[in-house]
Amino acid sequence: MKSVIDASTVLAVCRQEPGANEARYKMRHGLITTVNLSEVFQKSMEHGKLPLAQAIIQTAGLNVVEFNEELALRAAELAAQTKKHAMSLADRACLALGITEQLPVITGDRKWLELSVGVKVEMFRPGVN
């Protein structure tokens, strides 16, 4: 099933964190916003793993979705609903794409499970669903 991928999912594979195998499986042919892709690139550069991150994105067949005006507005609207969870712009961009495309979002961030914003959240980390 197609889904929207949070930066934490790609980074978990890149860093071989717990749940990396599940993350690798869940992100195949998913969608990722340009905002989340930028976060992946930035954090990968900090750890000298940009080429690996790029290879993971290519191998997974991720489809990069432009953060356009519609997604920007939806992400802005989510700010009030997600304020108590301290959601970043990248987090809200991911959620906005999931809502727009009516697809589940995949993340490793447990605080997303507490959200009620009209999108299904799936975790890739062990023991969390």
Q: Within the CATH hierarchy, at the fold level, what is the topology? A: Rossmann fold
Number of domains: 1
**Helical content, roughly?**
40-55%
Going across the biggest sheet, name each strand in turn. Answer: 1-4-5
- Count of DSSP helices? 6
Biggest sheet, in brief? 3 strands, parallel
Along the chain, the helix and strand elements come as EHHEHHEHHEE
CATH top level label? Alpha Beta
Uncertain runs are none
CATH architecture: 3-Layer(aba) Sandwich
What Rg is obtained from the alpha carbons, in whole angstroms? 13 Å
By DSSP, the count of extended strands is: 5
Distance between the termini: 16 Å
Round the mean pLDDT to the nearest integer and report it.
Answer: 95
Strand content: 5-15%
Described by the principal axes of the CA atoms, the overall outline is: globular
The CATH homology group name: 5'-nuclease
Q: State the secondary-structure class.
A: mainly alpha
